[in-house]
Amino acid sequence: MHQYLVSMVGKDKTQSKLFCLWYANRLLEYGRSEFVGRFFSACEKLFNDCAVMEFNCAYYAHQASRWVDAIKLYESALSNGYDSPEQVYTNIGNCFRELRRPAEAEDAYTAAIRCNSSWWPAYYNLALTYEEMGRKKQAYDLFLQIPDDCELYCLAIVRVSYMADSDSECKKCLYKIDGLLVNGSVSKFDEGSLLYARAWLNDKLKNFSSALLSLQGAQEKSRSYSETSDSVNSVGRYSKFSRFCRESEVLKKVEVVSEQDILFVCGMYRSGTTLLSQILSQSNQVFSAGELGLVSSVDFDVDEMSAGVATLNAWVHRYHCRVNQLYGGDRKFLDKQPNSIDLAPILARAFPNSKFLYCFRNPLDVCLSIVFQQFDDAIWYARSIESINAYMNIHFKNVVESKKLIGSNRFKVVRYEDVVGNFEASVRSVCSFASIDYSQKMSEFYKSSVLASTASVWQVRRPLHKESVGRWKNYESLFSPSMLSRWEDFDLGGLESEH
Length: 499
Hints:
The protein is mainly alpha-helical and about 500 residues long. It contains 23 helices and five strands. Strands 2-3-1-4-5 form a five-stranded parallel sheet. Helix 17 links the parallel strand 2 and strand 3. The longest helix is centred in the middle third of the chain and has 22 residues, at about 305-325. It is globular. About 40% of the residues are buried.
């Protein structure tokens, strides 16, 4: 290999470097990380910039979710004198956050700030880490340290807005947001983020008409930069993919990957999955992984069975690697990924000891909560009430069919309204199904230090309440008569009454 590289360097140094990066990443991909250090030592003799190559390789590993490998390479780049240590420490912190190791993430971000006290990405990401840990004051103070000429300022103001508790705090945030919007110098994305935050603040102040105006502006702005505006095509692809995942011939060819005890907490987005996950995470029998995010990476295009099955099997193995990277103990592994319901039959086959907790909430409340949230393009239906309605029509059919395939001994529907209305009985029923001991600590989930990193990050830091039940009635004009008729009293054909 060394002789081959020497001959390549003589011809084209740039191409040689690209080949080295490719080769190093293949070593990582095939589990040969022990050779990577020696390989880069050889490269250093040829290129004299080993640190840069290690940083680039670390970045590729980071993007491929190989966080442990990425951390080692970032640290090696630091030891070899990479000339922007604050950037490296920030990236190390980001990897530790993905690994749900917040204390080490905090140390890395703090090191970045020591290297460069004006490196604002470290402040922003450290504040996000404090948010996830429930350390509100520290997060709040850090966000406010970001100066108004920094590109992260708008996002910091948005994060502070979602922390607002009192009316006076809400009004202060509205004042700042209105100033930024009037200024007119923010990007389309930031403008959308600010409008969503303004809608949320007005809703909290019970200024529902103002909230509605801001919400409509936010949706319009989001659609202007969204890459998934073709909702009709997306609905068709989703419907086809859902049927594919339930076909008996497909399921027969899905590989059994692990006997690991996995609890999938799934449902519509904004249906109470974070709340249920946070409650169950109080048990010492559960390891909470948060949202792994891998389900959104599955491509809906499945035109040919063998290729589709191969894609799903490869994805299942990637998922298993991600699980093992996060946790190797004997507690139940809890994955709170709402749209894992879309792959439930596949996951049930690949992990035969897994169970599914499907969170069900009144569809109109879910719909409203989704449109109040700025989702990324992976949640392709979130841009309008109409596309959410189209999605729900397919989604709930998929839930019913998936439950039939998986069986009631492994699939339980958990009603959000039951959890907030009759907490102990509802949670005891869930614990019995999941073979978890009920604990009184579960009723004080909001005091927990368990990480929460979803859109509901501050909502699950509050005691249980019923304020969100029937919230859609404040915005009834958003819904067409047919939607109101379809969803107001909808249930899942008796599914939610089982167990």
